[in-house]
Amino acid sequence: MNAVADWIAVDWGTSNLRAWAMAGGRPVAEAQADHGMGVLQPHQFEPALLDLLTPWLDTGLITVVACGMVGARQGWTEAPYTPVPCAPLSGRLKAPPATDPRLDVRIIPGLSQVRPPDVMRGEETQIAGYLASDPGFDGVLCLPGTHTKWAQISAGEVVSFRTFMTGEIFALLAGQSVLRHFVGEGWDEAAFTEAASDALSRPEALAARLFSLRAESLIADLSPAAARARLSGLLIGAELAAARPYWLGQRVALIGAPGLSETYGAALAAQGLLAETADATRATLAGLAAAHANYTETAP
Amino acid sequence: MNAVADWIAVDWGTSNLRAWAMAGGRPVAEAQADHGMGVLQPHQFEPALLDLLTPWLDTGLITVVACGMVGARQGWTEAPYTPVPCAPLSGRLKAPPATDPRLDVRIIPGLSQVRPPDVMRGEETQIAGYLASDPGFDGVLCLPGTHTKWAQISAGEVVSFRTFMTGEIFALLAGQSVLRHFVGEGWDEAAFTEAASDALSRPEALAARLFSLRAESLIADLSPAAARARLSGLLIGAELAAARPYWLGQRVALIGAPGLSETYGAALAAQGLLAETADATRATLAGLAAAHANYTETAP
Fold this sequence. Notes:
The first copy, chain A, has nine helices and 13 strands. Chain A has helices spanning 45-53, 123-133, 166-176, 189-201, 206-219, 224-242, 244-247, 258-269, 280-298; strands at 7-12, 17-23, 26-33, 62-67, 82-83, 103-107, 111-113, 118-120, 139-143, 148-154, 157-164, 252-256, 276-279. In chain A, helix 8 (258-269) links the parallel strand 12 (252-256) and strand 13.
């Protein structure tokens, strides 16, 4: 083990496994693999983790704190959801059936909501990381991604949240539907903003506007870049229409990859809302560090 | 050639090629292949057609009338769109560069609309077939399918139309998205009707309701059959919300595969609208026969 590192932070999602050797709250080494939860059977999680961490391990015991889909029912072990309203890290960490004597693995549970039904795994850690640097935040956090989350935060708790499949639907339509022949590389900011505003003001027309991208490409020479931006604008605009109670008149911060956060920020700016932005990886690490600090404080 | 058949009707879509040996307006033999337009290069269309028709051909010349994506830009030859408003078969049939002396192939052009941009290929033939049996029809035809079309008909003309990608989006979400683990076989009529009505009355909430199917499966034991019916209901309800000007207070006939037409019919019935239904294959054949009759009347 790197002499200065005293624990390991792990973000284990559906497609990726990322690990950081940590000295307190600071990463001193990083490693990643494509052994996401989606391609692993339960008995394959420990070998996949050891494979990645071996260069960092010595004979002593080290704590590994992990977040994400690794704690799903189809993951390494199920870390049962904590129901909202609650602080994002208030659930009990779950130890999977690891057998290597050098590892003390703890998985952060996700959050659930009964009405309307919703779940998250991983984003609760980013939310906790964001709140670690601004404990008094009162407002809404938006976490854009494959499944974008909107979470209402008050007094350090997640009060309610809502998930939108916007990123996944964009990928399916742009990559696998009949629109794939017309949606190309590049971007047209004006086409994005216009489509987002249009979908926001008339969300009921979304279903009719998607095929128009094909028709306009055929009969009106819509460019592949404009088609891409417009498809994104229609879907994000429809999301913003459904998420209106979350952002209208609220303080909003975006936690996500820089490009995608900018896109959401532009759509919100067109509605007169200037959102703050925060880096997703930094939030994940700060959240894992907060969970690690809680764990070591309360461990016997 | 079957002695009684005097021409050949062909429905050539993206995924399938179907042909009928016809005696006037009556099919006397049928054949099909999976050589859809989507898997063929331009030079492969004639061999694919000959492959299917050879048992029916003798030394004489025979007319083949075809509709569908075979006339698309990526098809055998482009049959340019006829702009609406127009009678569904008012465009000029297009001959592809066939070289076999036994074939006189004619492709029916599709329809286009400038505002809002839209196109159809194949459905114009079904519309013509429907109108052949009810020339005075004044109302709306809905053709459910991968890309559902709604067409306003008056005085024998298609006045306007609109396409919805509902069928394709359902297939992508049910088969390839994160929802695929929760959407199963079977059907739950009550779940369908409730979801369709809900999406119709609050279409702006659609983006938020899709992920709920996953959450409800995880935390509230939503059955795979109910998830399937609810996904279908949400998408068809959103389509009906966007298509409202087409059906509200109108006479509506559904032309489609029996199961899918029933599903649309149930969603419309819940809104107090009793739609008529017509068989899609019968409409296609009647439309091809009408195009054949026009062609032989006007041919030199």
